Each structure stands twice: as C-alpha cells, then as structure tokens.
Amino acid sequence: MNGQDYYIPAVAMGVSLAFKLPTLRNNWRDPLLRSVCALLTLAGSVFTFAAPPTIEAVNRWTGVPNFSAPLVYCLITAFSAACLVLIVNWRGGPPEETRRVSRRWILGYGAVIVALSLLFLLGEAPVERVRDFDTYYANTPYMRELIALYLAAHNVAAIVMVAMCWRWSLQVRGWLRVGLMIIVLGYIFNLSYDATKMTAVVARWSGHDLDWLSTDLAPPVASLGALISAVGFVLPLVCQRISDSWQNWTTYRRLGALWHEVQISAPGGAPCVRMSWWAAAELRVIQRESDIHDGFLHLGPYFDQRHRDEVLARALAGGADEETSRAVADAAMVAAAVRARAADPEGKVIGASEESAAHAVDGPRDLVRISHALRHSQVVAEARRRTVLSAAPGAGRSAS
Q1: By the 8 A CB rule, do 333 and 314 touch?
Q2: Distance from the Cα of residue 197 to its chain's centroid
Q3: Least confident window among 154-163, 192-201, 364-373
Q4: Which of 240, 251, 266 is nearest to 363 (CA)?
Q5: Whether residue 205 sits in one domain with residue 313
Q6: 258 CB contacts (<8 Å, ≥6 apart)?
Q7: Among the three residues 243, 267, 286, which one is the final residue of a domain in this structure?
Q8: What does the pLDDT look like over 74-89, one tens digit per residue?
Q9: For residue 13, what is the domain's CATH number?
Q10: pTM recorded for the entire structure
Q11: What range defines the domain where residue 97 resides?
Q12: 160 shares its domain with 229
C-alpha cells in the first residue's frame, strides 16, 4: 500500500469527526459525544502516522530508526481504549458506574501504552523497517513482546466492539440500527486485520515465512474496515438530519392550506413575517404555526361551537375515525369563521372568549390534520358552501 491508501481512511475519519463537532460544541458535557470524537480523532491519527511516507518523515525528524513503530502502536492502543470507552458510554447506565468503568479502561490501556514505550526503549531495532516491522523484529527480544502486546490489546477492543454493537443493534430500530450493523461489519474487518498480523508473527516465531499476510494483506483490510466503520458512525447522523429536514418541509407544506385560509383574518391585512430563503425548515414551520395561532386569535369571536358540533356529528356518521372527525369539524369551523369575519369588516362581533379558539389548537399534528381537511374533506366543502349562503355578520358566536 502507498501513502494514499492510508490517507484516504484518515480523511474519512476527519469527515466523520466534522459531522460530530457541531453537536459536540453544543453538548460538550455529553460523555458519549466526547468518546465518539476521541475515537474518530485517534482513528484518523493511526492511519496518518501509519502511512509509509509519514513513517519515514517521523523517523527522519526524530533521528531514531523505527521511532514511528512505537508511536503507531501507542496510537492504536489509545484507539482501542477509545472504542471501549465509547461502548461503555453508549451502553449507558448509572453515571457513576459509567465513569468508573471508563476510567478503568483508560487506566488499563494507559498502562499498556507505558509498557509499549518501555519495551521499545529496552529493545534494539537499529534497521529501519517502514512496511514490515512486525515480522522483521518478531523474534527480537522486547520487540517481540511489544508487537504481541499491541496486537492483543487491539484484538480485545475489536471483540468487545463487535459484541456490544451487535447487542445494541438488536435493541434499537431505524438508522441507528443500520449504523451499528455497519460498524459491526467494519470491526469484523479489524478482527481480520489482527488475525493476519498475528498469523504472520506466529509464523515467524515457528520459523516460517508468511510475511505477505502482514505486509500486503493486513493494511488494505484495516483500511477497508476503517472506511466501513466511518460510514457506520456518520450514516445515522446524516440520515437523521435528512429525515428531520424532510419531515419539517413536509409539515411546512401541509400547513399551507390552513395558513392561507387564516391570512385574511389578520388585522388590516397585515403581512406575516418574511423569512430569508436560507432559513431552516424548522424555523419556517415554527413561523407558519405562529401565524396560524395568531389567525385563530383574531378569528376567536367568530368561532361557532354549534356549527363545529354539527360537522363533527356528520363526519362521525360518515364513518370517519374520531381524530379525523375532530379535524374536519375544526376545519369547517375555521372556514366558517373566516367568512364570518370577512362579512364583518368593521369588527362588530366582540367579547367572545379566546378559549373558543384554544380547543382547535392542540398541537402541530392537529394543525396538519385541520389543514388537510380544509383541502380534501368533502364535509368541509359542503359546510363551506352552506356558510356562503347563510353566514351573516355576528352570526355563529361561540357558545363556549
């Protein structure tokens, strides 16, 4: 593998981290978010410093042959600790217990990092090996222990990661479950990386030569696993954002009929607040709901509870369920109030309680139902035609 094969997954980890940073900035105290960001940072660092061009550069800058080897191994070990801490926080539980277990893993893998550094200092590795350090020094005192220790630590973390993510995926649904399954697949490739590395090292211990497993096969397996894992981390977040945005735009569009219906009730035809074209869909929905609520307040004196009850009874008799019938009745009452308000330009109808408007405003979902009924309900259309024929200024004052 050349440097590009390492830098591509490093960039993938950086992109994943970029998606997480805005959320981390707003929720810095969230240990789960901190764990995810630490994992992605360390994963990107592992691939950056494991790239052959970076290895050569670090060795040259430090003046120590193979200085990059313990550096990369320590980063891999820190990455393994980040995986375990992430799983502990993801699993949840009592905060004190979560912190205690996280500290235990951090201290344990911190001790491994110290041991790796000491083993490198005690051993001798005078010949620079950019691509095959593991197998070249597999039988060298202290280097042998160093290699086995970092592989064992990484293997333990990968096994725990697969087990915990698989268990978690069985308890959740949606994009989170898909993301967890992808992470499991990515870490299965990490286990394959450990297996190929250990096979090549053990072969050296027994006097055989399977160096190609470590030199040629293990790096692309690790790269592929990292890319798959990065997708698993990013996919739930990105898809959830897309889903939320789509839902907000859908709600905004569905509220259109009701919003247009109540606009004529604004005093003096006052225009609603105009939002910039780049405004988020969520803000647009909030503004549209606010405009509708304001319209209801102005229409309050013209709401006719008896008219609503009549339409409700007709809708129920027609076989509609209770929620749909209430929405149809509210829509008919709103349509009738709009026409009654238009027939009373001087605003002579006064003194009605605002509570008459409140019952039709039970939340955004009800507003969507009312808006849908205004556009599609035949019962509302019939009530609208009757109102045009019989409505008069001051008629239909609310009875509640």
Answers
A1: no
A2: 34
A3: 364-373
A4: 251
A5: no
A6: 292, 331, 334, 367, 370, 371, 374
A7: 243
A8: 998 998 888 888 778 8
A9: 1.20.1070
A10: 0.67
A11: 3-243
A12: yes
